[in-house]
């Protein structure tokens, strides 16, 4: 097995890095959506050209289209360490969460409790908070206003035998801290509660073994993990069969269908198998063997090691600047490469200045109004967010540092 990620090989799997219109641009808004890998593009193109028919029919194009859709679900489930029927696709993570919240609305009774955080993206907060209208006791697990971190002892103070669900992010798209999912899940389960983990901001940095984490629900967005615009949802069987069906009545016995009332986007579901192709290509190139979950872990560890090495110099640089506030951990080992900073002026203005230097970054609240407010940050000003993934290389980070020095 290779000791380090071959970033040149990685970048060769992404057509964006050979695209003339993007030449000279360094992409640092990956938390909003990643570049798409070549296997996904190839599968999507093939589906639209050869198999854009109703799938699962008796004729060849239809049969092959259905097989590709099944392949995507089967391979991704194996990578994530869950059963095939525990993984489903939906239009987006926001939509998947909303549908789940409606199921919980029917399943819970007045007086039941649900715990949410103020560290979350609004997609894993707002739908759950609305359950208060149905008499659910919605409790807020609040971040430390200085560090932005969630403290396990604060959660334990909120847990009792009325809590049915604990919702929290694997990683905040503002704070960037990697939360201890195993420990949080263990505490929730000990109190008799299920857990819903928003993995959207962590999954781009490596797919995890959901089975090992113990999460009952794990959600992420394929368009941020080098794939098409789909929401991927893991819903473990025990909980999935407890909750009321949200789809057509005749799909009630199918776990992977009963929480996707809109029906699948055939081409995009099929194209999700390209994410598995990409991981397999990385594993083969780096000499990572084993079953699907084992290869996935090896690729995850390579990605995280590469990102951590690039992230620490950026954190060190920003931490030394008195004119800004660096949000979240200063140690790259405990943080995803999603870096938010509060400036004296609007974050969007600084993003525009960086764009003049070939740096693609973002400014605003990024649907993270609650954590920003909790940390005392003016929403009209927002933050500058700099986010990267494993295909980012050292010259790009060096270029970012030079641009920041000029603009700050």
From TrEMBL:
<dbReference type="InterPro" id="IPR015424">
    <property type="entry name" value="PyrdxlP-dep_Trfase"/>
</dbReference>
<dbReference type="InterPro" id="IPR015421">
    <property type="entry name" value="PyrdxlP-dep_Trfase_major"/>
</dbReference>
<protein>
    <submittedName>
        <fullName>NifS</fullName>
    </submittedName>
</protein>
<feature type="domain" description="Aminotransferase class V">
    <location>
        <begin position="27"/>
        <end position="241"/>
    </location>
</feature>
<dbReference type="InterPro" id="IPR015422">
    <property type="entry name" value="PyrdxlP-dep_Trfase_small"/>
</dbReference>
<dbReference type="InterPro" id="IPR000192">
    <property type="entry name" value="Aminotrans_V_dom"/>
</dbReference>
<dbReference type="Pfam" id="PF00266">
    <property type="entry name" value="Aminotran_5"/>
</dbReference>
<feature type="domain" description="Aminotransferase class V">
    <location>
        <begin position="302"/>
        <end position="400"/>
    </location>
</feature>
<keyword id="KW-0663">Pyridoxal phosphate</keyword>
